[in-house]
Amino acid sequence: MAKHPPLFTIGYEQVSSAAVLDTLSAAGVDLLVDVRAVAASRRAGFSKSLLAAGVSERGIGYLHLRGLGTPTEGRQAARSGHHDELWRIYGAHLATPTAQEQLDELTALVKAGRRVCLLCYERHPEHCHRQMIADLICERVGVRAEHLAAPPV
Predict the structure, then answer these.
(1) Are 146 and 8 within 8 A, CB to CB?
(2) CA 105 to chain centre
(3) How far is it, in rounded angstroms, from Cα 74 to Cα 61?
(4) Range of 93's domain?
(5) Quick check: is 31 in a domain?
(6) Residue 79 counted as domain residue
(7) CA 124, 44, 71, 91 torsion: positive or negative?
(8) Mind listing the pLDDT tens digit of every residue in the chain (153 residues)?
């Protein structure tokens, strides 16, 4: 475990893009992996192109792995607070060929020693599919997850 950095995760609910960028920089993240199915946001700075530009200015790479995003019905379950339903839906989604390919891609990045951070909306990882991704990657690579939290606005 010591030879690989942790796998970071972060949610941007209730935070500014500057706070997220500061938090990523402080943690030494070198690659932000966006695991949203739809990389668009009403929150300033979190749509795909603006987010990619913002992290690039900090010397951080950006990768959108759309295939690891939550399907529409899973996002609806999460918004309704039905987390057991979210886990069921997302677990089935992870068995798809696209999700498996992107999990393999993410695994390779973490195995290579990259300082990767998974990004999604929900502030608390236990209510977000990124927790399930982190658990799988940590098990595959033998690293620990570290959940970052930017200061709320």
Answers:
(1) yes
(2) 14
(3) 28
(4) 7-148
(5) yes
(6) yes
(7) negative
(8) 448 899 999 999 999 999 999 999 999 999 999 999 999 999 999 999 999 999 999 999 999 999 999 999 999 999 899 999 999 999 999 999 999 999 999 999 999 999 999 999 999 999 899 999 999 999 999 999 999 999 998
Q: How far apart are CA 101 and CA 78, in angstroms?
A: 24
The pairs formed by 79-87 with CB atoms below 8 angstroms and a separation of 24 or more are: 83/127, 86/129, 87/132
Instruction: Return d(Cα 7, Cα 5) in angstroms, integer.
Output: 7
**1 belongs to a structural domain:** no
Amino acid at 23: T
User: What's the pLDDT score for residue 1?
Assistant: 43
Give me the amino acid identity at 2.
A
CATH code, 84: 3.90.190.10
pLDDT for the residue 33: 98
Q: Which residues pair with 80 in a beta bridge?
A: none
